[in-house]
Amino acid sequence: MNEQRPIGFIDSGVGGLTVVKEALRQLPNEAFVYLGDTARCPYGPRPAEQVVTFTRQMANFLMKQEIKLLVIACNTATAVALETIREELPIPVVGVILPGTRAAVKATTTGRIGVIGTQGTIKSHSYHRAIAAKSSQTQIFGLACPKFVPIVESNEYHSSIAKKVVAESLKPLRGKKIDTLILGCTHYPLLRPLIQNYMGPAITLIDSGAETVGEVSVLLDYFNIGNPDPANVGSCHFFTTGSTKMFDEIANDWLPVKVTSEHVDLGK
Ligand code: DGL
Q1: Average pLDDT over all residues of the chain
Q2: Any residues with Cβ below 6 Å from ligand 1, and which?
Q3: In the chain, N or C: fewer CB atoms in 10 Å?
Q4: What's the total number of domains in the chain?
Q5: Which residues are annotated as a binding site for substrate?
Q6: Residue 161 pLDDT more than 70?
Q7: pLDDT digits over 213-244, tens only?
């Protein structure tokens, strides 16, 4: 294997940038290529078969960019497409659900864990199953927050509307006595200060995407495919199926590197 090849990240939009942000910090020797399917975002309300098709299209696009490992930086796609994409690709494929699960089981002291995500992720019960498989005594409270992704994708995540929507959406979790809350959608870390503020400082928030980067690091070692060549460090390429202007605005607000994305049409 050529260790200098980039690591690929896919998401329905800008959400996976929260994973890339962590990857830039934890894997500074690596090169990255990112594809956000912004034109077809959100994936959350879509039927599972369609999410599998879209995920496959994104994965195939990044395979043409000669990636050495793929991160499905989207919980909705991980929930329904991880196994299929793993079978189809000749490279390691990592999803975001198990790493978030492990971190939550480690963090909880009361065994009461909340999970917020898209309708697709919550409906799939993927977190419930993964947590129950590790810790059958744990109680899990799942909640879909369909209004969060549109707020992030429209670059409104610093606004007062965002604060109101976060408070209204998370209300059902109040009184559930959880001590740990999994941000089970990679868009949600952009709303993290508002979520933490509403839930209170005693609740541990788990960023499933950020946890995933630790696993990527382990896999690079396990398969011996890390990039040891400092001359090739830190290149990042970003692709979006939607507006490059909006993508770049959010990416440049969020990431410590300058982002100038390229438009791609996955239909072609
Ligand atoms: N960022 C995605 C996730 O982690 C999906 C958001 C969406 O497209 O609905 O689930």
Answers
A1: 95
A2: 11-13, 15, 41-44, 74-76, 117-118, 121, 149, 185-187
A3: C
A4: 2
A5: 11-12, 43-44, 75-76, 186-187
A6: yes
A7: 999 999 999 999 999 876 656 689 999 999 99
Length of the chain: 268
Question: What confidence tens digit (pLDDT) does each residue in 52-90 have?
Answer: 999 999 999 999 999 999 999 999 999 999 999 999 999
Q: Supply the pTM of this predicted model.
A: 0.95
List the residue whose alpha carbon is closest to atom 2 of ligand 1. 74
Of 192, 208, 224, the domain-final residue: 208
Nearest atom of ligand 1 to the alpha carbon of 41: 8
Which structural domain range is residue 190 located in? 97-208
- Both structure tokens of 243: 């507006």
Q: Which residues of 36-45 are buried (b: 16+ CB within 10 A; e: fewer)?
A: bbbbbbbbbe
Q: Go through 160-191 and write b for each residue having 16 or more CB atoms within 10 A of its CB, e for each that does not.
A: eebbebbeebbeebeeeebbbbbbbbbbbbbb
CATH label of the domain that carries residue 190: 3.40.50.1860
Together in a domain, 138 and 72 = no
Ligand 1 mean position, distance from CA 231 (Å): 34
Q: Are residues 82 and 148 in the same domain?
A: no
